[in-house]
């Protein structure tokens, strides 16, 4: 345990020194301020990477579109090995990050549990309702209505258990959120 504490202390020291060199004051956010920051960031709808792992221990990562409802993430997908993995292990991780220079870095790492819903469930209908803006963007880009054949897609709902948020330019580094 001592080495973990030393690593954590060392990381904090590096963060403080780096922000000081960048002339940025480190901010410690309240739980509500942190949730507001994360929700604001999630609302930008950046592509995210969803990591799953089946019972064989082999990780799989998928770049997917998502929509958030507060801190809950909904992912609409037509299939793939991620669903096999989710049947075997519903623990997931999500990474979303933006910025091309250190001062502009903004991102969130999310750990949570996933549930998969098919179109015969109320949760699927709810997810589709909030997913409408993304489907509208697809229709606008294609110039035709998007029609999804019945039984082709599933909805993944990720309930976060832990998140780590960064927004370097605002002095927010390694801001930890954990589910109550």
Write up this protein.
- The chain is α+β, with helices and mostly antiparallel strands.
- It has one domain (2-178): Electron Transport, Fmn-binding Protein, Chain A (Pnp Oxidase, Chain A, Roll).
- It is 33% helix and 35% strand.
- Strands 1, 2, 3, 4, 5, 6, 7 and 8 form an eight-stranded antiparallel β-sheet that branches.
- The longest helix has 20 residues, at 2-21.
- The radius of gyration is 18 Å and the shape is globular.
- 20% of the residues are buried.
Give the N-to-C terminal Cα separation.
24 Å
Number of helices, counting only DSSP H or I runs of 4 residues or more: 5
Kindly give the count of domains.
Answer: 1
Number of strands: 8
- CATH evolutionary superfamily: Electron Transport, Fmn-binding Protein, Chain A
What are the main properties of this structure?
180 residues, alpha+beta, Pnp Oxidase, Chain A, 5 helices
Explain briefly what this protein structure is.
The protein is an alpha+beta fold and 180 residues long. It has helices spanning 2-21, 31-42, 81-88, 122-130, 132-142, and strands at residues 48-53, 59-64, 66-69, 72-77, 91-98, 106-117, 154-167, 172-178.
């Amino acid at each position: 345990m001592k080495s973990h504490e030393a690593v954590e202390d060392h990381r904090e020291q590096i963060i403080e020194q780096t922000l000081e060199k960048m002339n940025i004051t480190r901010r410690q956010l309240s739980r509500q301020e942190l949730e507001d920051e994360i929700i604001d960031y999630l609302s930008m709808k950046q592509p995210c990477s969803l990591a799953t792992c089946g019972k064989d221990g082999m990780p799989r990562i998928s770049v997917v579109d998502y929509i958030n409802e507060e801190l809950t993430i909904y992912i609409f997908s037509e299939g793939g090995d991620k669903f096999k993995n989710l049947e075997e292990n519903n623990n997931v991780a999500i990474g979303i990050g933006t910025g091309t220079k250190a001062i502009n870095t903004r991102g969130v790492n999310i750990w949570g549990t996933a549930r998969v819903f098919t179109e015969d469930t109320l949760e699927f209908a709810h997810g589709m309702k909030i997913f409408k803006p993304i489907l509208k963007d697809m229709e606008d880009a294609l110039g035709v209505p998007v029609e999804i054949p019945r039984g082709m897609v599933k909805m993944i709902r990720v309930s976060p258990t832990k998140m780590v948020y960064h927004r370097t330019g605002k002095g927010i580094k390694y801001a930890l959120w954990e589910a109550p």
